[in-house]
Here is the input.
Amino acid sequence: MNSVLQEAQQLLKIKTVHLQNSFIELDEDIDINELVDMPIAIQSFKGVSKIREANVEDDGQSWWEYCFYFAVGIRLVEDELEQSDDLTPFVEIKSTFCAKYESTKKLTQEQMEAFSEKNVGYNIWPFWREYVQSTCMRLNINPIEVPLYFC
Here is the structure.
């Protein structure tokens, strides 16, 4: 692990993770029970889309607050059309989560980039997996398997 990432990990203490926004779509032209017999492909994306930095002062104390916005999504498409530009997903779930951290010191740009690339996803991923599972249950479809997190 590089020293820049280690420095950021030592400085940042996680405070909260919350859902910032979400988009859910279930194709209304498909009978979801028919998907069992169809070749399905899972497509996904993940990554930090924005970082918000603020210096906070309260009761004579000062600290830095960092919000890392992590965009993530998953969808089911017909396997044969996976490479096509004409894709209409059967199911699509996209979200942005905000992971809020505090630090006693201001981070460098290099530390923020290293932390966003190698650490934030590990904090967000359990929330994302639970969100996909519970959303599938609400849609009355079989849960989409979200793999373990990797960088």
